[in-house]
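[worker-b] picked up task from shared queue
[worker-b] task type: protein-ligand structure
[worker-b] ligand name resolved to NAP; SMILES cross-checked against name lookup, match
[worker-b] sequence length check passed
[worker-b] input payload:
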Amino acid sequence: MDKILKGLPVSRKIYARIKEQIAREKLNPKLVIIFVGNDPAADYYVKMLEKKSKKIGILAETIKLGSAVTQTDFLQILSKLNNDEAVNGIMIQKPLPAQIDETMINNFINPQKDVDAFHPLNLGKMLLNEDAFIPCTPAAVLEMLKFYEITTNGKNVVILGRSNVVGKPLANLLLRKDETGNATVTICHSRTKNLKKITQNADILIAAIGRPEFVSQEMINEGVIIIDVGVNQIVTDKDTTAYVGDVNYDDCLNKSSFITPVPGGVGTVTTAKLLQNVVKAVEFQKM
Ligand SMILES: NC(=O)c1ccc[n+]([C@@H]2O[C@H](COP(=O)([O-])OP(=O)(O)OC[C@H]3O[C@@H](n4cnc5c(N)ncnc54)[C@H](OP(=O)(O)O)[C@@H]3O)[C@@H](O)[C@H]2O)c1
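[worker-b] inference finished, payload out:
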């Protein structure tokens, strides 16, 4: 097996599965994306998501709101979508302007339409191993491991980053008593002492800190498996912009046994997991 773990074959497999299920069960899944402001990267992502959705049989609609939208207006729109039976999944594109309280929004979204899995009910159910939406990036990491037949059973998995979106849910999933779980998990963050000593002990190192090329070869053990979740925009020597991960890929390539690239790694699979959650939403709403 190639040591570069690419996301594309994994996402292709997920899309094929979704497309087949939609056709077989004659589903009409609908995703509504709420997009506030005009951040160019977010705009690009939303357009890509609409295109991907269409290709596999999901209707994706975007509601564009001005960056001065009030919290009250935002909640009113969300309330309508929460109660609209034709809408299966709701995704709120980040970043949100400062006047919008993100926690309140996460708590207000209908948990059955919460395809990003940010609602406390979904996070709680995930923790208890009940059937619920799983946050897309942690789900993408597990899907990558499964696809490339990397076992986690009894392995030392070190996660860099403790966010609610990536690090914390991922750690919980890796602790499950199942085929992508049973790992011994260590979570590190900005206050962790002797970081290098901990990362050097990893069988699998997962980086999700938002620090461009932070992980270098001195921090890793020979043969480690590296999953790079980070996506950081940098300005290159030639004054152009580029995206790099949280791992110094060139520096760590030889010493690792497997490594995910950025771009072209976990991010590709995250989008597929989001759209898979839209189909899951249809199932939840049938119950
Ligand atoms: N590929 C994808 O699909 C995908 C999806 C989501 C996010 N991402 C990317 O993943 C990265 C992390 O995203 P996030 O939303 O989880 O970020 P976040 O909310 O900013 O959390 C960053 C975490 O990293 C920790 N951290 C920061 N600097 C550190 C250091 N020097 N050493 C150790 N830990 C450090 C922070 O510690 P404290 O808690 O102590 O502050 C925090 O827990 C970003 O690059 C983001 O773009 C990618």
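[worker-b] attaching auto-annotations
[worker-b] Residues 137, 160-163, 165-167, 188-192, 208-211, 229-232, 246, 266-267, 270 surround NAP (CB under 6 Å).
[worker-b] releasing lock
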